[in-house]
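Aim 2 progress update. The chain analyzed this quarter is reproduced below.
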Amino acid sequence: MKPLKENGSDKPKKNGKGSKELQKLIAKNIEETMKRIEEAEPTESSEDSPFVSGSEDTGDEALSDDDGSISESGSEQSKLSQDEDVIQSSEGDSDDGDNDGDLVSEGEDDDNYHGEDSHGESDDSREVVEESDSSEDEVAPRNTVGDVPLEWYKDEGHIGYDLAGKKIKKKERQSKLDSFLANVDDSRSWRKIYDQYNDEEVELTKDETKLIGRLLKGKAPHPDFDPYAPYVDWFAWDGAKHPLSNAPEPKRRFIPSKWESKTVLRLVRAIRKGLIKFDEKPKEKPRFFDLWDESTSAERQGLAYIPAPKAKLPGHDESYNPSAEYIPTQEEINAYQLLFEEDRPKFIPKQFANLRGVPAYDKSVQEIFDRHLDLYLCPRVHKKRINIDPESLKPKLPSRRDLKPYPSTCYLEYKGHKGPVITISVESTGQWLASGSKDGTVRIWEIETGRCLQIWDLGEPVEQVSWNPKPEVPMLAVAVGHDVFILNTKCGSDEQQKTIEEILHVEPQKAEDDSDLTANVVTWGQDDKHGGIRLKHFKSVTKVEWHRNGDYLSTLMPSGESRSVLIHQLSKKQTQRIPFKTKGIPVATSFHPTRSIFFTATKKDVRVYDLIKQKRIKKLDAGVREISSIAIHPGGDNAIVGSRDGKLCWFDMDLSSKPYKVLRAHKKDLTAVAYHRTYPLFASCSDDNTAYVFHGMVYSDLNENPLIVPLQILRGHSTGDGRGVMDCKFHPRQPWLFTAGSDSLIKLYCH
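Predicted structure tokens:
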């Protein structure tokens, strides 16, 4: 420190008297400094600093005691450093001039001492300034841009303007390496923070760092603050003659409250009504609840509320003793029986003498079963969506190796047709194959050798060929234009040929009454040219299907309206139309494999009829654009339906009238579907030149759903006239599949 003034008149002289006075002044300054340090607040301990300094901060470490005292080593070191500074400054000043000078005053000497020590330890020697709440004591910010974001000055050379309106230039930025080295060398770098707003570096004092540390620990900013100070009672209550307030008591303290009495009265009424109950046990939640209860799901904490369907209100005709005008006569009842089932009245009124004479409802068991079936099949649980692996949603299907045998490889091709092959049919013994083409020919092939045995040229495109299902009568039904030919294939033995000739013999028809429903619809005649029977229809025939006993066959005429579906009996040479009203345009028909049930497929749905009871028993809704084909499972309880939009629908008729599975395999229209008689296989073909083979296992256990597994995609046909594979049929005994394509080829796929 420089306790002497720098001007020449104040310099001390170099004599013995001046040196003694200088020593006294030094001792006096040291004493004053020690007193100020003891009176000041305790300094920061060495534990608050993240750096450990061995040389520069020894004075700081010496001042780190909690009681504010100074250690001996620190005091001695500070005394020595002060002595050295005073001696050096006095010698330097004495050499500069010869003029004698007086010593500085005590106040000026202390100020110079603190200013000199600020180069080394500025925090310890800083004067203690009393805190003030006045805004005038605050230092004005250097930058005057206000709340303007500094990002606006990102591309500028300055960061704002000072009080004089001059630009504040940006300082040159140090590299990260230089700033790191500077921080390592500087033991006080942990106290320095960068003020981005004023572009300067600010060093925190020890008091400020201690204040920040206390705030981070959740303590009071000032160390002298005691949050648990004892309570100070400012009044002396002992011997007090008067209260704090000597005001008179208000009137409300002596009169009962009107509002409290009203509240009590309201509570009493609620208790009497039972709205408020005491010591009531909590209600147990019922284990079962009424499904059609009117309460909401939130009240009963159960499944979602499903309102019961509203029944139609009964009328006078549904009374057990209606008026005479509501009771039909016997003639009217007989007239009802001649109507279609859809047109018959659902309820015929009857008269009873009393209510005890009313019999039980005859359809109660059936309706209860249907109701229970609907409840069983109706999903009533709301499942929340969760994040799961999509792969886990795929069904676990068995390996294709375990499902062999199934057709997978093209083994043989049957060539001979000159036009697209529209239809094929396999004989029940599996030895012969019949095919029909647009070139107007029907061919009989030997399956194992591929040899063509017979050819019939019918002159028109063939729509359908179908073998008789009985192996003893190998006849072939062919649909061509308006005619249906029943041909003798001559593939059986001599005895079988005699039987066939007797069946195919037609007597000349007698004149029939015009009142007959089938008059002028079908004409039975002998076909000597092709050797068989010719059934001439009034419209074009597209489908021919045989009954399982081989005596009946059905023909389909889509444009025949009410007479579009006809059933012919071969033994009696008779024809009759089905006694049902068909709605829509029929596209396919089929007989049930074991029961007297008939299937009629329109473009939108499939209707199932009982031929014995002559009524409709089921309606299958496919939900597709247009149905193209149908096939019935050999068990009779399942069916597959092909559509024009490439969908294949599997129906479990015991389960629901909706599809059990919808397979979207083909890209174009499905042309045919087929079941295998013995193996759990079914197939479909499409105009995209592919045929799909599936594994379809139907279990005897009604609680187990059918297993459907895709097995193989068969390719090989080429496109002709925009069409692909036209028909597909399974071999009756082997796991083989025959496909007929628009490229005039028939392919055999084997395992």
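The first helix runs from residue 16 to 39. The chain is about 20% helix and 25% strand. These observations will guide the mutagenesis experiments scheduled for the next reporting period.
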